Amino acid sequence: MDRRTFLRMSGAVPVAGLAEWPPPDDWERLRRRLSGPLFRPGDPEYPEAKQGYFTMYDDRTPAAVVGAARVEDVQAAVGFAARHRLPVAARGGGHSYPGYSTVDGGIVVDLSRFSGIDVRPDGRVVIGAGARLGPIATTLAAAGRVLPAGSCDTVGIAGLVLGGGVGVLDRKYGLTCDHLEAARIVTADARVRTVSRAAEPDLFWALRGGGGGNFGIVTGFTFRTVPIADVATFTLKFPAGTQTALFAAWQEWQPSMPDELWSGLNLDATAANAGGSFLGPQARMDGLLDDLIRRVGTRPTEREGRVLDHLTAMQSFDDPESRPGAVAARAAYVGTSRMLTRPADDPAAVVEVLLSEPGVGTLIDSGGGAIARVGVRETAFPHRKALASFQLLHGAAPADGGEAEARRALAVVRDGLGPEFGTTGYVNYLDPEMPDWAEAYYGVNLARLRAVARKYDPRGIFAFPQGLSSPRSTVHMG
């Protein structure tokens, strides 16, 4: 079931269609209220304005894209959508794996103009919801600070933090959402609210891991940051055929490491690689890596370690082609996830599942450390005790067989891991075909999150197929 069919069945979109609803005069009144642009089908800028990061969703046709330039524009868009029963979605970085930020038949609120990054003397930073991780890291580095976050330059801060926010500093400093002190949000009643532990704490709790798009449109954040430091980075490449030995050794080795060491694995049919970072001397890092190599029982074919300034280190984990200005500024792939909740009893069986579909690549990112020292119910992020996350990826370009083939292959691996690791997944790697998705993404916090969604969005203004305020949010939408 696609998004448009879902929304029509739920009564959110009148069957008359884009050309007749809302009437043209209503759109013109909205346009006059906005300080930013309004892009409608037929406008020259519309084809580009409606694009997200993933090319697979270019055929979706929003009724309008609001280029919000101030919070009043967001209020106007939400109020207009509510009056006319149109779906509305925010777009920050546009990296939604199922393309939910490109809402077919509804209003996309483009937050890219909310890109301000204001570093305060006390080390706090106020960041607009349209800012992306590359400029954030660069601005903070110039002030000698860092916000624990992801490493992909083009990812938006809003989607990252609202889903929890995993990255290479998390074992030492915690998730991105653990550094959030306040957020400004436009809720379904078109009110602007500034939420924190002291002001509307239930909504503030929900915004720390409850997923993007569920409770309103966030326009800005205030974070604590930490002092910047040099980072030792490493890469270990093992011979083909050692995937099982590497995974078996790593799942026992990583939890015993100090918080300063973060690592991840890259496994596919030809790759058995480990990489990561260490907040300390390279010599100590090298000793820890020697221990991993001993456990694997095979010497790596390549080993690299170096000390970098923090900004360069973060960029080294990113794909250069994804950076602003690069030729490959957009992409076509799909993803899904599971959580490594405990060391696998049979590592060979797990790796057999991971390698069962040749087009599927697996990224395993370590958890633990500071992440696990926050209670499971203290924030909405439920996977505090997980040892790691599995991110499963497959190309969705025509040369890869397209999106349908990619999702078929991912389902084989995802569902093959289910019996071992249960109903688990990371909400920032949304999969529209994830079985029991609400339980997988929100776990023990699901009931409370649904209650918060009902409180702030009782009419389902922000409903989408895997949204907590959707009329069918208890149903698997395959």
TrEMBL record:
The keyword Flavoprotein applies. SUPFAM superfamilies: FAD-binding/transporter-associated domain-like (SSF56176). The keyword Transmembrane does not apply. Its cofactor is FAD. One of its GO terms (molecular function) is oxidoreductase activity. Residues 58-228 form the FAD-binding PCMH-type domain. Keywords: FAD, Flavoprotein, Oxidoreductase. Belongs to the oxygen-dependent FAD-linked oxidoreductase family. This is FAD-binding oxidoreductase.
